[in-house]
């Protein structure tokens, strides 16, 4: 049987890194693309003997994405692996949702969110489609519960994530039946312990942080990684064009003040 191959953007830290590590333990070959070279080097070093190709790539840059996919194909050939991809996870992007009040938001800053989340997903998806078609693979887009609900001053992030949800159902309709396309909307996921060494933190959460979640805790990157693995598997073979909130139930809670 062919060893499955996953391409994960933003794979060197946070949710992306947890997804890389889960898929490696489940027997996948993984190509991780991340624009932070220091984090990429740390990921590479931590998995020196694993079937992992870790690359410093800005997914919003057309040429860098093209070169990365050429590199992935070369890596597969070098190891005698068949052509094609089984999974693309569009996870990379500016994770900080706050862009400040819209009336003072610079166009360049608006574009930073759109470029990293939406343009990055467009470029990587475009590059991956032929390989995904070959193996009847899947795409998982990492959106956010902020595509569905808001705090103030998150317009650029919310628009990018809402765009990603719309792109998910559009792609599902265009790319079926060969390729399934779904999205995950994470809620509050604590990524401090999953950052590169220079940025790593281990925040203590307050009782109220845990208690406000119907499941009684804040999320972990592994919660999202496990959902990616499910959506990529045959168990999810009848699911496409959908989004799943991985948020401990927060988007199902009414929060009118008493
Ligand atoms: P993170 O900052 O821990 O990791 C994101 C990674 O993406 C980083 O390693 C960063 O270098 C990389 N990246 C950013 N822009 C890139 C680009 N243009 N090209 C290549 N790599 C790039 O963030 P995270 O919290 O793990 O978030 C991952 C995804 O999940 C993001 O899309 C984020 O919006 C989404 N999300 C996170 C949360 C949360 O609570 N952590 C909630 C909802 C959605």
Automatic annotation (TrEMBL):
Keyword Plastid (UniProt): no
Pfam families to which the protein is assigned, alphabetical:
adh_short_C2
**Record's superkingdom?**
Bacteria
Q: Which SUPFAM superfamilies match?
A: NAD(P)-binding Rossmann-fold domains
Xref: PROSITE patterns: ADH_SHORT
Can you tell me which family this protein belongs to?
Belongs to the short-chain dehydrogenases/reductases (SDR) family.
**PANTHER family, alphabetically?**
DEHYDROGENASES, SHORT CHAIN, ESTRADIOL 17-BETA-DEHYDROGENASE 8-RELATED
Name of this protein: SDR family oxidoreductase
- The organism named in the record is Salinicola endophyticus
């Amino acid at each position: 049987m062919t060893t499955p191959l996953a391409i994960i953007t933003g794979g060197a830290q946070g949710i992306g890194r947890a997804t890389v590590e889960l898929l490696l333990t489940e027997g996948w070959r993984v190509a991780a693309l991340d624009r932070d070279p220091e984090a990429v080097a740390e990921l590479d070093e931590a998995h020196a003997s694993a079937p992992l190709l870790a690359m410093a790539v800005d997914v919003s840059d057309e040429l860098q994405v093209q070169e990365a996919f050429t590199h992935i194909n070369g890596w597969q050939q070098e190891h005698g692996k068949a052509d094609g991809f089984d999974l693309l996870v569009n996870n990379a992007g500016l994770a900080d949702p706050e862009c400040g009040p819209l009336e003072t938001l610079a166009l360049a800053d608006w574009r930073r969110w759109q470029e990293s989340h939406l343009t990055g997903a467009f470029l990587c998806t475009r590059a991956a489609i032929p390989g995904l078609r070959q193996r009847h693979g899947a795409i998982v887009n990492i959106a956010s519960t902020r595509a569905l609900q808001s705090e103030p001053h998150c317009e650029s992030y919310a628009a990018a994530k809402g765009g990603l949800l719309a792109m998910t159902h559009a792609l599902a309709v265009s790319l079926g039946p060969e390729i399934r396309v779904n999205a995950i909307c994470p809620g509050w996921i604590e990524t401090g312990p999953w950052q590169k060494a220079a940025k790593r933190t281990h925040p203590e959460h307050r009782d109220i942080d845990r208690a406000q979640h119907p499941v009684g805790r804040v999320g972990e990157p592994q919660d999202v990684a496990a959902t990616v693995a499910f959506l990529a598997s045959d168990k999810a073979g009848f699911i496409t064009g959908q989004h799943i909130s991985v948020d401990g139930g927060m988007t199902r809670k009414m929060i009118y003040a008493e």
